[in-house]
Amino acid sequence: MIVITAPTGNIGRRLLSLLVEAAPARGEELRVVVRDPARLPEAVRDRVEVVTGSHGDAATVDRAFAGADAVFWLVPPDGSRTPDEAWTGFTRPAARAFATHGVTHVVGVSALGRGTPQAADAGLVTASLAMDDLIAGSGVAYRALANPSFFENLLEDVDSIRDGVFTDTLAADHRAPLVAVADIAATAADLLLDRSWSGVDSVPVLGPQDLSPDDLARIMTEELGIPVHYRRESLEDLRSTMLGYGLDEAFVEGLVAMKRAKGEGLDSGVERSPRAVPATGFAQWCAHTLRPAVLATPGTTDGR
Question: What's the pTM value of the predicted model, to 2 decimals?
Fold first, then answer.
């Protein structure tokens, strides 16, 4: 039995699609934890067992993990909480339930940076790494998917990209890895279906090359057929904007600290491992995902 948390999110819905197709041939049953079962695709509703509720709730995970062998764990970011509450606090009931129900394998969505000088003060990333430690301490075999920033973050800028500009806080020439969420889902599926691994480790999930904001702008210009430019935003402007959205102040400081750490090299220097399926390139992602979103009627994209 494999349990999938956050099955309607960016990564979870792709993972669920992969597992629904592959799991039956391996004799694996699937169970999902979801707040609103109506958000599950109709095609999979009768192919999975559904536990309704939040996977941050002790009673819900107690039901969900009973009889489970493996769990895909993803914490949905919650800007109304402090980083510690949003990651470690949310995960604590699940860590207890892993031990109570004898779950043997967990695959979690985490971040790059462990072992770097920047990781001690990297805000949301530091909180994510602490979550990994909590899960590892529960006694399960654990693989933390160590991710850089996602290509999909650019979907939040679709309207401005349509007007020819996108923003971030990195220096324009700062190269760093990025990744498509489809690659994260595929890596998680491989680990969940072949549980011959043991112990605790991180698995970096990276695109095929490091890219700078200027590189992204050039590739977007080529793939979208419109001139796209990068505009660097200051950390102070980012802080003001996020606070203006009413987010928890400590969460905003964690976001700013993460952005600062990334600018100082938090995600750099990670060795790329050979993959059975080639990693998604940024130009490929632009053609298949970003271009349709940019060309859509303004206001009709769902940001996923």
Answer: 0.94
